[in-house]
Hints:
The protein is an alpha+beta fold. The chain is 29% helix and 19% strand. It has 3 domains: 6-46 and 211-285 and 514-536, D-Maltodextrin-Binding Protein, domain 2 (3-Layer(aba) Sandwich), CATH 3.40.190.10; 66-198, Alpha-Beta Complex (Dipeptide-binding Protein, domain 1), CATH 3.90.76; 290-507, Dipeptide-binding Protein, domain 3. Helix 9 packs antiparallel against helix 11.
Amino acid sequence: MRFLACCRLKxxxxxxxxxxxxxxxxxxxxxxxxxxxxINGGEPESLDPALVTxxxxxxxxxxxxxxxxxxxxxxxxxxxxxxxxxxxxPDGKVYTFHLxxxxxxxxxxxxxSADVLYxxxxxxxxxxxxxxxxxxxYIKNAEDFYNGKxxxxxxxxxxxxxxxxxxxxxxxxxxxxxxxxxxxxxxxxPRQSIEARGDRWLAxxxxxxxxxxxxxxxxxxxxxRLRKNPRYWDAAHTRSELIxxxxxxxxxxxxxLFETGLADVIWDKDLAPLELxxxxxxxxEFHPFPFLGTYFYRFNVTRKPFDDGRVRRAFALATDKERxxxxxxxxxxxxxxxxxxxxxxxxxxxxxxTFNPERAxxxxxxxxxxxxxxxxxxxxxxxxxxxxARLQERIGVELQQMWREVLGVEIELRQIERKIFYNAQSRLxxxxxxxxxxGDYNDxxxxxDLFTSASGNNRTGWKNARYDGLLEEANRLANIGERARLLTxxxxxxxxxxxxxxxxxxxxxxxxxxxTKVQGIYPNLLDEHPLQxxxxxxxxxxNAQRPTLN
Length: 550
């Protein structure tokens, strides 16, 4: 039994890893061993499709609750889910979805268009407090209903025509509407459980599921266990019977669990020790891929001094992104001066703001803080990670030093627990905050609509009518080139003129698994890996000796 670089760990941490490994092994002895064990990141904040915002949580909710469409694991493109087909009106505004006639919940009850209608209305209801409710605003009257201008939900452009027909009327043709139909916010959730148990509906056992898996257990700081849903429409192609998803934010723990055979797959770069990346990249289990993700920081523009665009732009110009990538990230990341990653379909970003210390100092002086004199004490906030995942902290320290060198200002670093961090962002209880975003579909809108005035994911306090108008006008256009031109103008407003955010780098992703044992994982720009596609072969096809990690 090999431990990944235990010799590099402090004795206390080494002892903890050994004890944790023994504990998990003992737990496996008491319960049936899962067919597949995945290290999935931190403890889930929720498994409610209307509420999840983190990629790790969404992986689980997509396995439990499916929508009209789903994303293909090979291409990241929309394919049929509970809707086996659909029709689009000649003007592109009306979609008629035809549900599978044999559709049932995992509990055996019929799954109908009334369940779709309930699920979409629930996601749109302000009482649900979904950060992604805005994804439904493209539907006729949906935004007015959300804002209380319309009281009758029947006036929203969604309807259950009959038990197996669901109709959607949009405000205007939308190039990415089918992509939205794949997103967890629009998944089909069990009205029967929600109305019976309220906020505790996820605790119901059995919990009716519309996805390829049922929820067996959600054990805090232990695991989420899923079992194949035999009534799922595509159950014949669901490859693993029992899956465990383990929550850990510790890279050392994650890789040791993998090395000792207690885990089969590790998602996410954050679960790899930075000091070992040069070694990890040369392992056969390392599977890199480009994907649509950006790491950035955001300002709270409702607080001084960041209510002044000159101050925000000064900080952007004083941030050396190449230095961050060169010194701190080692997985192929690319420095970013714009927000939308390279490679997005049918789109070209503006240049953005590059490192320019002289101009940064000039802007700060114009704002009333020459050489940083009189600048208030402000905080840069990031969330803490257990067991050594300290990249955010290191980035914070490097930014702190840059701004001291270039602007002459002193910034305090504020590290807090992850759930408190996101809550503080939502309440605008911060000055500056580390942030990241991974695209939900392959279109520039999935990045740019974050910062519209109505977006629940904006979390900056920045509202700009011109920006909102550019996005709305762009998304009404059928002409791809003209639409891209308007979106580029909007992004220039976001990252060059107003700068409520500052992009730092584009992600480079990888998944860690033994390809001779695990099948069904494919690289794609959305980092989309449906759990029903993945299985483990207990008899590897190759016995080639792999290098040791030490």
